[in-house]
Each structure stands twice: as C-alpha cells, then as structure tokens.
Amino acid sequence: MNSETINRSKASLEVMKKLAEQLSSSELNHRLPNGWTVAVMFAHLAFWDKQRLELLLAWEKNGIVANDYNYNIFNAALLPFWEALEPRACVQMALENAEAVDVFIESLSDDFVTRIQAAPNAPDLDRANHRLHHLKQVR
User: Fold this and answer.
1) 5 contacts: CB under 8 Å, gap ≥ 6
2) pTM of the entire structure?
C-alpha cells in the first residue's frame, strides 16, 4: 500500500479522534442537512470501515470476487439501527473500526493491493476519502 494513502487514512483517523473529543452529547444528537444525527454519521462510518475490513479479510482468505451492491440501500436499511444506538457507542465504534481497517490495509502486500484494484467495482482502500467527506459535514 502506498505511503500517501496510509498517511491520509491515519490523518483522517486523527481528525475523527479530535472531533470525537470535542463533541458534547447534545452535539452528537444534532441533525445534519441529510437528516442524520452526528452520532448516526459516526455509526455510518463505523459500519463502512468494518464492512471494508471484513470484505478484505474474506478476499484474503477466499480470493477476490465481484463486489457489486448499492450503498444507498445499505444506508437506508441500517439507518433505524444506527439511530437506536447510544451516541457515544457510535463514536467509539467508528474510532475502533477506522483504526482496525487502517492497520489491516497498511499490512496488505503490494501484490494483493494490485489484485484488489484490478477487481470490478474495486473498493476504495483510501478510507480518508469517505471519512473526511462526512466529517466535513459536522464541522
């Protein structure tokens, strides 16, 4: 994995940590323009980092297969579950899953990364893109 991607993911995790430390309970319940609360946004990030980790673990074990699914359907289906979670738990899961996927992605061999990137609908291994998109909404 190239160092720029690794550094961007690590930096985005630090942004998440700093923001998480600053947010009050009422701020975690603040509604964003898309209708989600800040806590739901953290749950969303937690899910997608965990999904990416589990996908990569499965591919490492069983080989790379086509990855074709509609993200919007997953988000819509999971929204009521995310809303039911305790806000601080959403933040904690987001931080833990971000760190876990970053560590795993950093450990990937160059050959495996090349094979992933050649796969149809290859997942973005630069987790910073997704995180920073949502964190910008909160700031």
Assistant:
1) 105, 125, 126, 128
2) 0.91
